[in-house]
């Protein structure tokens, strides 16, 4: 998984994972990582305390899972959010 990702990709995945309104499905579409692999990547890349804070933050958060989101929300980000690769 992370063996094929660049440091810039890993950094962006971590940034997206921390964002409240970016669902795991968006990370999967862009990088091919399902939620369980994003969790493993976060655990490997973060300090234990930071990882615990992140897990508490995203656990059950409706905006992190597309199926739980309000159907009126059609996108997860503003047009200027994504940085060029």
Describe this structure in words.
The protein has about 80 residues and is mainly alpha-helical. The chain has one domain (about 1-65). The protein has helices spanning about 5-20, 25-30, 35-45, 50-60. Helix 1 (about 5-20) packs across helix 3 (about 35-45). The protein is globular. The two termini are about 20 Å apart. It comes from Methylophaga muralis. This is TIGR03643 family protein.
Which helices and strands, and how do they pair?
Elements: H1 7-18, H2 24-31, H3 35-45, H4 48-58
What are its keywords?
globular, mainly alpha, single chain, 85 residues
Distance between the termini: 19 Å
- Into which percent range does the helicity of residues fall? 40-55%
Mean pLDDT: 81
Number of distinct beta strands: 0
Question: What is the domain tally?
Answer: 1
Number of helices: 4
Could you tell me the strand content as a percent range? under 5%
| Shape field | globular
From the alpha carbons, calculate the radius of gyration and give it in angstroms: 13 Å
Uncertain spans, ≥5 residues at pLDDT below 50?
none
Largest sheet properties: none
């Amino acid at each position: 998984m992370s063996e094929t990702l660049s440091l810039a990709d890993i950094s962006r995945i971590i940034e997206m994972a921390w964002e409240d309104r970016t669902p795991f499905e968006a990370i999967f579409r862009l990088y091919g990582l399902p939620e369980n692999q994003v969790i493993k990547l976060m655990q490997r890349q973060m300090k234990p305390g930071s990882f615990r804070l992140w897990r508490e933050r995203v656990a059950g958060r409706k905006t992190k899972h597309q199926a739980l989101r309000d159907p009126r929300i059609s996108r997860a980000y503003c047009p200027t959010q994504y940085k060029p690769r």
